[in-house]
């Protein structure tokens, strides 16, 4: 029996590739999961047996493995089940030994097991996104946000990218018992795990967060059963707010503006995004429905309703604006007010109808200041944009648009990142994670608000950019 120690997916992949080329059957291998046996001294690779001498292979021979399997295997590798490596190799073997379509056989016991493991990893990753709470500490470099979380599986690696995108402007660390991840504004670094005690416990932010939570907490809305289902008991000790539930139930809600501002930086819509696993497949209608209840930041308090994206669900073009305006807020549909009319006309002038496309906003609630009877537009803050980004991310992930047009700096920053400069990068076509063809232009509201001399030039640029879009779009339709 050959013994292999594996610590991560790349280890397994490398060994599996060699073993497969040498035609070593799954029953001849004992995989040792090095991750789940950290107490035992590491075994040298092939310690008990010399390495299998690779069978002579013609040099051009490659192992043909479906991409879907590689992706699935990588997900499964994050599960803590020690037998996963063996399972993965068995499935790989079967796929390459006459059962090419094995993954399509949903009743096969290996396939069932793989899918169970994959689901558990996805669910755990979702929970991490929803339940990680950062606390602020100040070190020699300034603010540092630290969280400690206990996942069921090794999901920090596959989930870290999510936090990087969401909190790219903060310096942060997420610790788990088995591994930690740090973001310094430039790169993600991974290091060993940390005990709970390493995470700051009682700092300023936590106190503020608790007070905030106590103040916004509405006892009439408490749904203990739903809370328990969504928030497994094991996470309760790391969630500062749970300590206060009894007290909150007794105390009347009382707002503290300053607290709200301070804690707003960790506000996020993420916890309101439906779990794709429970309601698979997640679709735009489900997403829209869930967004109506979002309280991810304080903008929901004064606005009339959530204004979710609108348009054909199979649209290949998406326009992203900033936030709904006064009229959109009342009607619940984006771009129905004056800015929408300007956009509609401009699209019409380049030969299309806005109704063919999907329109949405970077922020889903209207932010305004009252002036007499009027409600005047206020630009959303970076924190509000960050809080709302999960909705836009989820929309774009489902829509997978061929063309993405960002209107104005807010939408552009939500898509291209915080360093985007509209004046410099307007009209440039770029590839982004969200769409192969992404471009930014002025926001129609900005044109409407601009002074006459500026407005003319902005309008020209805007029309020029939309003409560019139309030309490319027309080319793809023709193909
Ligand atoms: N401005 C926007 O950005 N979006 C709307 O929906 C309306 C005006
Ligand atoms: Fe949620 Fe976005 Fe509305 Fe804030 S603006 S409450 S994050 S939908």
Keywords:
4 domains; five-stranded mixed beta sheet; binds iron/sulfur cluster; binds uracil; single chain; 17 helices; 479 residues; four-stranded parallel beta sheet; alpha/beta
Question: Could you please describe the fold and organization of this structure?
Answer:
It is a single chain. The protein has a five-stranded mixed β-sheet with strand order 3-4-5-6-7. A four-stranded parallel β-sheet has the order 9-8-12-13, with helices on both faces. Residues 37-60, 215-222 and 246-265 have low confidence and may be disordered. It is built from 17 helices and 13 strands. Helices cover 40% and strands 13% of the residues. Strand 5 and strand 6 form a beta hairpin. It folds into four domains: 2-127, no CATH class; 132-198, no CATH class; 206-262, no CATH class; 270-478, 3-Layer(aba) Sandwich (Uracil-DNA Glycosylase, subunit E), CATH 3.40.470.10. The termini are far apart. The chain has helices at residues 9-21, 67-77, 84-95, 109-131, 156-166, 204-216, 224-230, 245-250, 257-263, 284-291, 326-331, 338-349, 382-399, 408-416, 422-425, 444-449, 452-478, and strands spanning 2-6, 29-33, 135-139, 142-148, 172-175, 179-183, 188-192, 317-321, 358-361, 368-371, 374-377, 403-407, 437-441. Bound molecules: uracil and iron/sulfur cluster (SF4). Uracil (URA) is lined by residues 321-325, 328, 334-335, 337, 339-340, 361, 445.
């Amino acid at each position: 029996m050959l013994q292999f120690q594996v610590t991560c997916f790349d280890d397994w992949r490398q060994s599996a590739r060699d073993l497969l080329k040498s035609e070593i059957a799954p029953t001849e291998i004992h995989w040792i999961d090095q991750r789940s046996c950290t107490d035992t001294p590491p075994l040298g690779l092939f310690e008990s047996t010399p390495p299998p001498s690779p069978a002579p292979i013609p040099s051009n021979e490659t192992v043909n493995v479906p991409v879907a399997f590689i992706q699935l295997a990588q997900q499964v590798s994050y599960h803590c089940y020690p037998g996963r490596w063996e399972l993965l190799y068995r499935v790989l073997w079967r796929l390459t030994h006459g059962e090419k379509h094995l993954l399509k056989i949903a009743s096969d016991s290996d396939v069932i097991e793989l899918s169970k493991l994959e689901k558990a990893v996805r669910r755990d990753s979702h929970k991490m996104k929803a339940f990680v709470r950062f606390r602020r500490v100040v070190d020699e470099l300034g603010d540092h946000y630290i969280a400690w979380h206990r996942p069921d599986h090794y999901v920090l690696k596959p989930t870290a990218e999510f936090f990087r995108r969401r909190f790219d402007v903060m310096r942060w660390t997420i610790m788990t018992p088995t591994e930690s991840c740090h973001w310094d504004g430039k790169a993600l670094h991974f290091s060993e795990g940390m005990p709970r005690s390493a995470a700051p416990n009682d700092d300023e932010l936590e106190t503020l967060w608790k007070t905030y939570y106590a103040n916004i907490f509405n006892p009439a809305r408490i749904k203990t059963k739903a809370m328990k289902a969504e928030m497994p008991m094991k996470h309760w000790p790391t969630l500062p707010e749970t300590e206060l539930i009894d007290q909150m139930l007794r105390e009347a809600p009382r707002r503290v503006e300053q607290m709200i501002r301070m804690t707003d930086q960790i506000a996020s819509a993420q916890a309101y995004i439906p779990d794709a696993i429970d309601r698979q497949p997640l679709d735009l209608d489900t997403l829209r429905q869930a967004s109506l209840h979002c309280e991810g930041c304080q903008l929901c308090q004064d606005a009339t309703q959530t204004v979710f994206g609108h348009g054909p669900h199979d649209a290949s073009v998406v326009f992203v604006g900033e936030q709904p305006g006064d009229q959109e807020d009342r009607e619940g549909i984006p771009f129905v007010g004056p800015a929408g009319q300007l956009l509609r006309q401009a699209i019409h002038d380049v030969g299309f109808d806005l109704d063919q496309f999907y329109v949405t906003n970077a922020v889903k609630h209207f932010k305004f200041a009252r002036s007499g009877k009027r409600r005047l537009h206020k630009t959303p803050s970076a924190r509000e944009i960050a809080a709302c980004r999960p909705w836009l991310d989820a929309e774009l992930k489902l829509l997978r648009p061929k063309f993405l047009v960002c209107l104005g700096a807010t939408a552009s920053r939500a898509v291209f990142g915080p360093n985007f400069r509209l004046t410099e990068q307007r009209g440039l076509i770029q590839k982004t994670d969200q769409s192969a063809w992404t471009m930014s232009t002025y926001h129609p509201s900005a044109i409407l608000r601009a002074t006459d001399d500026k407005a003319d030039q902005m309008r020209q640029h805007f029309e020029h950019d939309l003409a560019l879009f139309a030309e490319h779009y027309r080319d793809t339709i023709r193909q």
